[in-house]
Amino acid sequence: MNRIYLDHAATSPMHPDVFESMKPYYESVFGNPSSIHHFGREARRALDEAREYIAKSIGASFEEVVFTSGGTEADNMAIIGYALANENKGKHMITTKVEHHGVLHTFEFLEKQGFEVTYVDPDESGRVSADAIKECLTEDTILVSCMYGNNEVGTVQPIKEIGAILTDHQAAFHTDAVQAFGLETIDVKELKVDFLAVSAHKINGPKGIGFLYVKKGKNLTPLLHGGEQERKRRAGTENVAAAVGFRKAVEIATMEQEKRKNTYDAYRKRILEIFHEEDIQYTYNGSSSYYLPHILNVSFPGLNVESILTNLDLDGVAVSSGSACTAGSIDPSHVLTAMFDDISRSHSAIRYSFGYGLTMDQVEEGARRTANVIKRLIK
């Protein structure tokens, strides 16, 4: 059986050029970048070049990029770090109900520390209103967090509009751009964001590395304590090989951005065409106007997501519910629950996501296998 991977939003395969770029930094350029000798200086040069390239890709400066272990740490660093460093200015923060758990659970932690958090509702497309954010602002609001593009339904948020609203307010602005980076053109100055989180393994880079953009002048309380790495913002010996691989992944993603967007749009369209051809009933979840092209979320009325996922896996198709799996049971998606009053939409929702190495033939075969599974389960 030819297995088909349609879960690139969960993680993506490493690009072979990324792997090749990293190998020397495991084999010969292995020095600690904090060491002053030749071996350390070689590693430091590679780390600095990676940081400089990645910073330029989002319109930032060299010192504004902090390497982390991934998107979750970057989100935690921004949200907890800024809250603790600025609680003297206020203890109110704003986020949305459709954020990744790396953000939502971080705010829940801060609520237990005495902070107040307002959670903004989305509309049925999964999009929040910039005006709704504005209405929630108070004199004590110190941070607003809104993701760039949703990891479950792909809806893109009005980040630029929110940034403009916050220009004359004390609140800092954080966005989780993990799913959007590499597909959307991002300029942190234009967006007026203060913090932006990214992870390498979503764009065919290595797992275990990400970065946080920290606007110059924004102070954070460090979460890790030890050495003076990352300008005293994150202690610990830097992962030079991963940083080099991250840089290469960004280079490839930037070069292929428009091609990938067009390809993924074609995949989305073809899957839905096949569902129509096979007379499969489904409902589309997300925005038809503001969306990330590599994510497609649909519900199959009357069916159970666990049965769909299990049968698709048996038929060699890897997809996701986008929901949390705990102790063998799949909880209703918090994203779809926030979007719809009808909870059944969440209980039957499947996320298809596309990326490097996928072909139209595989996408079509995955859609047809899905149709066969749906027909079998309906009987």
The tally of structural domains comes to 2
CATH class of the largest domain: Alpha Beta
Oligomer type: single chain
Tally of contiguous helical segments: 15
E-strand count: 14
CATH superfamily of the largest domain: Type I PLP-dependent aspartate aminotransferase-like (Major domain)
Distance between the termini: 25 Å
* Helix fraction by DSSP (H/I, runs of at least 4): 40-55%
Strand proportion, as a percent range, falls in 5-15%
The major beta sheet can be summarized as: 7 strands, mixed
Spans of 5+ residues with little confidence (pLDDT < 50)?
Answer: none
Under CATH, the topology of the largest domain is which? Answer: Aspartate Aminotransferase, domain 2
The pLDDT mean sits at 96
Supply Rg. Answer: 21 Å
Secondary structural class: alpha/beta
- With strands numbered from the N-terminus, the spatial order across the biggest sheet is 2-8-7-6-5-3-4
CATH architecture classification of the largest domain? 3-Layer(aba) Sandwich
What would you call the shape? Answer: globular
Order of helices and strands: EHHHEHEHEHEHEHEEHHHEEHEEEHHEH
Tag the structure with descriptive keywords.
globular; 2 domains; alpha/beta; three-stranded antiparallel sheet; Aspartate Aminotransferase, domain 2; Aspartate Aminotransferase, domain 1; 379 residues; 15 helices; seven-stranded mixed sheet
Give me the secondary-structure topology.
Layout: E1 4-5, H1 16-22, H2 24-27, H3 38-57, E2 65-68, H4 71-86, E3 92-96, H5 101-112, E4 116-120, H6 130-136, E5 141-145, H7 159-165, E6 172-176, H8 188-191, E7 195-199, E8 210-214, H9 229-232, H10 240-255, H11 257-277, E9 283-285, E10 295-299, H12 305-314, E11 317-318, E12 325-326, E13 329-330, H13 334-339, H14 344-347, E14 349-353, H15 360-378
Parallel strand pairs: 1-11, 3-4, 3-5, 5-6, 6-7
Antiparallel strand pairs: 2-8, 7-8, 9-10, 10-14, 12-13
Helix pairs in contact: 1-10, 3-10, 4-5, 6-7, 11-15, 12-15
